[in-house]
Automatic annotation (TrEMBL):
Gene3D superfamilies reported for this sequence: Dynein light chain 2a, cytoplasmic (3.30.450.30)
Lineage, highest ranks first: Bacteria, Bacillati, Actinomycetota, Actinomycetes, Streptosporangiales
Alphabetized InterPro entries for the sequence: Mycobact_SerProt_Inhib_Rv3364c, Roadblock/LAMTOR2_dom
Superkingdom: Bacteria
Identification of the protein by name: Roadblock/LC7 domain-containing protein
Pfam families per record: Robl_LC7
Length: 149
C-alpha cells in the first residue's frame, strides 16, 4: 500500500467529530492519512499509534486473561479522544476526534472500514527484523460480515 490509498479512509474521516484518520504499518510508516493531516503530523501520529499499541499489547499479555490479543485502545485527553486498533496483520488504524463524540459510533465505523477492505487489502507484510507488535483480532461479540458490513 502507498499514500495513494488515502481514499480508503475518506468515509471514516467524514464521521461527525472525527478530526484525523491514519492507517500505518506496525513500524510506524504512514500507509494512508486523512486530508486534514500534513505529512509531518501524520508521521508523528503514526509513530505514536504504533508505540501505544505495542505497549498496550504488552499489558494485555501480562495482565489479560488470554494471549496478547488487543482489541482497541482509547485515550481521552483534554479536547479529544484517540482510538486505535489493529486493521489487519501488521497494520494499525488510528482516529483522533473532537472532545464530544459518540465513542460507539467511532468504534463501529472503524470496524466497518476494517471489514470493508479486509486482510488482503489492509495487511502490511512483515519487514526483516520488524517485530510483530499487534494483531487485528476483533473484539468479542464484534459484528462480522462482508464488504457491506
Amino acid at each position: 500500500m502507498t499514500a495513494d490509498q488515502d481514499w480508503m479512509i475518506d468515509s471514516l474521516a467524514r464521521v461527525a467529530g472525527v478530526r484525523h484518520v491514519i492507517l500505518c504499518s506496525r513500524d510506524g510508516l504512514v500507509i494512508a492519512r486523512s486530508a486534514s493531516l500534513d505529512r509531518d503530523d501524520s508521521e508523528r501520529l503514526a509513530a505514536t499509534c504504533t508505540s501505544l499499541l505495542s505497549v498496550s499489547r504488552s499489558v494485555a499479555g501480562t495482565y489479560g486473561t488470554g494471549g496478547r490479543a488487543l482489541y482497541q485502545v482509547m485515550a481521552q485527553y483534554e479536547g479529544g479522544v484517540l482510538f486505535l486498533r489493529g486493521a489487519a496483520e501488521g497494520t494499525c488504524l488510528g482516529v483522533l476526534t473532537q472532545g464530544v463524540i459518540d465513542p460507539a459510533l467511532i468504534g463501529q465505523e472503524m470496524q466497518r472500514l476494517v471489514l470493508r477492505y479486509g486482510e488482503s487489502v489492509l495487511r502490511t507484510p512483515l519487514r526483516d527484523g520488524a517485530p510483530n507488535t499487534f494483531t487485528s483480532a476483533p473484539a468479542p461479540g464484534a459484528a462480522t460480515g462482508g464488504p457491506g458490513a
